[in-house]
Amino acid sequence: MTIGEFSELTGISCSALRYYEDKGLIQVERDFGNRRIYSDKDVEWVKFLKRLKDTGMSLKEMKHYSDLRYEGDSTISERLEILQNHEIYVDEQRKLWEEYSENLKSKIQWYKKQL
Questions:
Q1: What DSSP assignment string belongs to the chain?
Q2: How far apart are CA 112 and CA 99, in angstroms?
Q3: Total number of domains constituting the chain
Q4: pLDDT per residue as tens digits for the range 38-52
Q5: Which tens digits make up the pLDDT trace of 44-79?
Q6: CATH no. for residue 11?
């Protein structure tokens, strides 16, 4: 599939896909005309990268994880450790956002009472 089709399928802009490729986060096959050819496997990988980004993983850490992934199964334990550490980070952020939300709810209730 072409980069435009892939962009629509993943919800990631063509420029972001090119950026990910430039940074080494994705390795894309090329045809005889040097055009990108994306596979179904690439779809799942890019969607996973998007989730990592959306949950606050740094580009540097995503790059490290991606490098390990492309090295193969011998890096599974390292990738597991990265994801476990990121899960701790995500859980800490979730707790922080819950505190923020409770504070907002409290302030909203206070204003409602004032009216």
A1: --HHHHHHHHT--HHHHHHHHHTTS---EE-TTS-EE--HHHHHHHHHHHHHHHTT--HHHHHHHHHHHHH-GGGHHHHHHHHHHHHHHHHHHHHHHHHHHHHHHHHHHHHHHH-
A2: 20
A3: 1
A4: 988 899 999 999 999
A5: 999 999 999 999 999 999 999 999 999 999 999 999
A6: 1.10.1660.10
What is the CB-side half-sphere exposure of residue 9 using CA atoms within 13 A? 17
Going by C-alpha positions, the residue among 46, 3, 47 that lies closest to residue 23 is 46
**What is the 3-state composition of the chain as percent helix, strand, coil, each rounded to the nearest 5?**
75, 5, 20
Range of the domain at 8: 3-114
pTM (two decimals): 0.82
pLDDT of residue 2: 83
* Structure tokens given for 17: 């896909």
| Contacting residues for 29 by C-beta, under 8 A, at least 6 apart | 36, 37, 38, 39
